[in-house]
Amino acid sequence: YENVCLHYYKKQWGMTPEELDPSVAKRVPVCISKDDRYFHDPYQGIPLEGYTRMIERILDNPLIDVRLNTPFDKQCFEYENLYYTGPIDAFFDYELGELPYRSLTFDIREMDTPQFQPVAVVSYPTNYDFTRICEHKHFLNDVSDRTVVSFEYPAAFERGKNERYYPIPQEKNQTLYNKYIEKAKKFKNIHFLGRLGDYKYYNMDLAVNRVLTFFE
User: Fold this and answer.
1) b/e for 180-215, b at 16 or more Cβ within 10 A?
2) Which of 13-17, 45-49, 96-100, 151-155 bottoms out in mean pLDDT, i.e. has the lowest?
3) I need a labelling partner for 65 at 20 to 30 A (CA). Which of 5, 151, 176, 195 fits?
4) Residues 6 or more apart whose Cβ sits within 8 Å of residue 135
5) Which of 151, 159, 164, 160 has its CA nearest to residue 195?
6) Listed residue (102, 92, 83) closest to 193, CA to CA
7) What is the mean pLDDT of residues 138-144?
8) What is the mean pLDDT of residues 197-201?
9) Which residues pair with 191 in a beta bridge?
10) Residue 9 and residue 125: Cα distance in Å, rounded?
11) Residue 150: burial class (beta carbons within 10 Å; 0-12, 13-18, 19+)
12) Could you tell me if 194 and 85 are in contact, meaning their C-beta atoms sit under 8 angstroms apart?
């Protein structure tokens, strides 16, 4: 507990495990074996050409019009259905209060070495200010003379200064989210989805499953 959980939580969340919902700890597998994988699902994988290419192919549909750098204003366009994946509290102009999040700062470095670390992700629960280092070439088994790594530094989310990454699982935050959902029920054709719309931590498999299940 002290070697891993306690100090990692303090860095990642800015609070101790006791201050968070038990679902956070439940995400971390505890295994007594030599299997050092984080996930123990029988089938594991990522898109063959990476997530960027996957999203590009989704957006390449002729029925999709992509508008970048366009502030969202629900009053400015017509729709049969709106699938909103932004912050639900922002949708309602923070009328009931602001939902808290944790953010991240990435220090991305190019290095003149074929390999920086033996695996894709190495966590640093106690020492250093960063929580983990990712070396991305391991995900797709790329071979190259150089490499790219990213150091992840947790930070408090501040509106207008950084991005929302992790909803903070606490009972008081869930209560506030539930109040926003009650307000949302009066809009029959507006649907809230994703980490920000659902105020829920999703891994990619769960995020994809959420959408497929919703449309079914």
Assistant:
1) beeebeeeeebebbbbbbbbbbeeeeebeebeeeee
2) 45-49
3) 195
4) 115, 116, 117, 119, 120, 121, 147, 148, 149
5) 164
6) 83
7) 87
8) 94
9) 83
10) 8
11) middle
12) yes
Terminal alpha carbon distance of the chain: 41
Q: Are strands 121-123 and 132-135 parallel, antiparallel or unpaired?
A: antiparallel
- Measured between alpha carbons, how far is 154 from 168 in angstroms, rounded to an integer? 13
User: What is 21-73 written as a DSSP string?
Assistant: -HHHHHTS----SS---S---SS----TT-HHHHHHHHHTSTT-----S----
| Alpha helices by DSSP H, 86-193 | 88-91, 171-184
Which amino acid is it at 4? V
Distance CA 90, CA 196 (A): 10
- How would residue 49 be classed by pLDDT, with cut points 50, 70 and 90? confident
What is the C-alpha to C-alpha distance for residues 177 and 197, in angstroms, rounded to an integer?
9
The residue type found at 90 is A
Separation of CA 74 from chain center: 24
Classify the phi-psi angles of 47: left when phi > 0, otherwise alpha if psi is within -120 to 50, otherwise beta.
Answer: beta
| Pair of tokens at residue 45 | 């994988």
- Structure-block tokens of residue 200: 């829920």
- Residue at 112: amino acid letter: D
Q: How far apart are CA 29 and CA 39, in angstroms?
A: 8
